[in-house]
UniProtKB/TrEMBL annotation:
Belongs to the ArsC family. GO terms for molecular function: arsenate reductase (glutaredoxin) activity. The keyword Repeat does not apply. Gene3D superfamilies: Glutaredoxin (3.40.30.10). It holds the Pfam family ArsC. It comes from the Bacteria. InterPro entries: Arsenate_reductase, Arsenate_reductase-like, Thioredoxin-like_sf. Keywords: Oxidoreductase. This is Arsenate reductase.
């Protein structure tokens, strides 16, 4: 299990606290310091079963600068979104937890983190 975190994020800290309390075996990926590339983003999107606009923080300053709220949300625009997430990792929703069964969740709630913990390979 891996968790993509921003240490300054309260939701990330809460997810880590819960993982620790449950004795989970996980690795931490500080995605702002070690930004995922486009292939890693595509892979996590596949595991999440989501599109890039589904995990984009559209209220971030860089999102407003880029004007992402006005970008098309369709197959032709998908790579533009993926590229933006790779170039500006602050746009990524957090935390993202990759579960042992090959899936992933956005762990913003206790229920989502527990869901990730329950997914066994």
């Amino acid at each position: 299990m891996e968790i993509w975190i921003n240490p300054a994020c309260s939701k990330c800290r809460g997810a880590l606290t819960l993982l620790d309390a449950e004795g989970a075996d996980y690795t931490v990926h500080r995605y702002l310091e070690d930004a995922p590339d486009e292939d890693e983003i595509r892979a996590v999107l596949g595991r999440l079963g989501l599109e890039p606009w589904d995990i984009t923080r559209t209220q971030e300053a860089v999102a407003r600068e880029l004007g992402v709220k006005d970008w098309a949300r369709d197959a032709r625009s998908r790579e533009r979104w993926v590229r933006a997430l790779a170039e500006h990792p602050a746009l990524l929703q957090r935390p993202i937890i990759t579960a042992d069964d090959g899936t992933a969740v956005v762990g913003r709630t206790e229920e989502a983190v527990r869901d990730a913990l329950s997914r066994k390979s």
